[in-house]
TrEMBL record:
Lineage: Eukaryota, Sar, Alveolata, Ciliophora, Postciliodesmatophora
InterPro entries found in the cross-reference section: Ubiquitin-like_domsf
Highest taxon above the source species: Eukaryota
Family annotation (SUPFAM superfamilies): Ubiquitin-like
Name recorded for this polypeptide: Ubiquitin-like domain-containing protein
Length: 101
């Protein structure tokens, strides 16, 4: 099991959860959306979630084990970037992989 420390924008709340190393990033995103968002975040307004750790974006199709842990004795920090429905329609995309129209 690998502990992940999810860091959300615009809140001091953090979510600490454990996952299997074989879990894929998209599965972790689904789990987070279904169970553990901070109170001030409405999951119904989220259009897309991106995870970043140690300066790199985590690829949805890869398992957690494909990313090195900075220190196995501490939770891996995951910065959560949220794109919301209302802003996604008026904000130009930052890259081709966002896929929001």
């Amino acid at each position: 099991m690998i502990s992940l420390n999810f860091i959300f924008p615009k809140t001091d709340q953090r979510v600490l959860k454990k996952y299997k190393s074989s879990d894929k990033i998209y599965q972790i995103k689904e789990s987070l959306l279904n169970t553990s968002l901070p109170l001030n975040i409405d999951k119904n307004t989220i259009d897309y979630i991106r995870f970043f750790s140690m300066g790199k974006e985590l690829d949805d199709s890869k398992p957690l084990s494909s990313y090195p842990l900075p220190d196995p004795s501490h939770p891996m920090p995951i910065h959560v970037h949220l794109l919301y429905l209302q802003t996604a329609r008026i904000t130009p995309m930052c890259c081709d992989s966002c896929n929001i129209v």
